């Protein structure tokens, strides 16, 4: 009936669009955070795998052997453990940022703001708090990662791989981590926009609910 149509109409509003964008950004933050975490498997000597792995890198592939191979594996595992708490924290934040707009979409589809307009002001406040909190959270994320990359473990790991001619093991932020930071900034701007739209919708609902009283 008309109630169902009104519920579906919300999904075509600007506030719903912003919330869907927030869901997408949260999913991307989760993906980038998981990529940043990497694998706990450590280094594996490719020649030992045999077959296509060996020939893909050529028969002259030197790899690591003996004590060097064990040291490379230890450094990989220690480096992984250093980054793990940061990646987990980022994934938890990303998960919360994913759940939050989903809950707000559900609340609005159920027309809670129509029956309780003050909810929109609460929503606005939550959006502003999250947007402001994104700044120190992003600083902590990047500062913690840079601390890991400046650690002796990372430096030794980088030198060990470079001694064998491997690239891509630099002690610096990689693409996924930079992308996570940019996505967090975009999410903060989306939250501020949603906060403004929530105030606008509060005024609209308040005016519409006052009309019958004026008649």
From TrEMBL:
Compartment(s) of residence:
Membrane
- Keywords from the named record: Membrane, Transmembrane, Transmembrane helix
Q: Its membrane topology, per UniProt? A: Multi-pass membrane protein
Q: Ranges for the MARVEL domain?
A: 10-203
Bilayer-crossing residues are 21-43, 86-107, 119-142, 178-199
Cite the PANTHER family for this sequence. Answer: GEO08273P1-RELATED
Protein's UniProt name: MALD3 protein
Task: Please name the source species.
Answer: Calcarius ornatus
Gene name for this UniProt entry: Marveld3_1
